[in-house]
Design goal:
This protein is mainly alpha-helical. The protein is 77% helix and 0% strand. The mean pLDDT is 92. This is Nicotinamide riboside transporter PnuC.
């Protein structure tokens, strides 16, 4: 455990807590967190997760814009639900991304866990995109992904980061409950 990891983990908890509360400051705080984690994942040779953090940086900017300027009236997005076809399409894209990235990492890098790292990376991108668009289903996907990350980081000996993802899991469950109560989800 390093100070850098401790700071990144603390920022991550703050960012997700703010996301649950639909506070747009979650995005710039999240941006700082993902940049710190990009550096850490490079040191740990978790290249898919490094790539994920770089892509998350772009999604942090996209999410901040969506939450403050997106939507039909450009006054910020409201919580909404995805239809079943869009959920399935997103999961299929996540699966295809996992296969492609896993193949690349397994055959062209010295990644320590190329396939699992790639799968978690790909599905995290789907969940983050849904979150930036304020889709309720982002939280269910985050619960699954975060639980897998807990096991992955425990196995990798990254205990503080595993603890962070355990907290993320609890926050995702809280986000699911909170966003389900938002009147915009049900068209009220």
């Amino acid at each position: 455990m390093s100070w850098l990891e401790l700071i990144a983990a603390g920022l991550g908890i703050i960012a997700v807590w703010l996301t649950v509360r639909q506070n747009p400051w979650c995005w710039p705080i999240g941006l700082l967190m993902v940049l710190l984690y990009a550096w850490l994942f490079y040191d740990w040779r978790l290249y898919s997760n490094l790539l994920l953090q770089v892509l998350f940086a772009g999604l942090q900017l996209y999410g901040w814009w969506q939450w403050t300027r997106g939507g039909e009236r450009h006054d910020g997005r409201q919580v909404s639900r995805l239809g079943l076809q869009r959920v399935i399409a997103g999961l299929l894209v996540g699966g295809a991304g996992a296969l492609l990235l896993g193949y690349l990492m397994a055959n062209h890098t010295d990644a320590s866990a190329p396939w699992l790292d790639a799968a978690l990376t790909s599905f995290s991108l789907v969940a983050q995109l849904w979150m930036a668009q304020k889709r309720l289903q982002c939280w269910a996907l985050w619960v699954v992904v975060d639980l897998c990350y807990v096991a992955f980081f425990l196995h990798s000996g990254l205990y503080l980061t595993a603890g962070l993802y355990a907290v993320f899991t609890l926050l995702a469950l809280s986000g699911w409950r909170s966003w389900r109560r938002d009147p915009a989800v049900w068209g009220h």
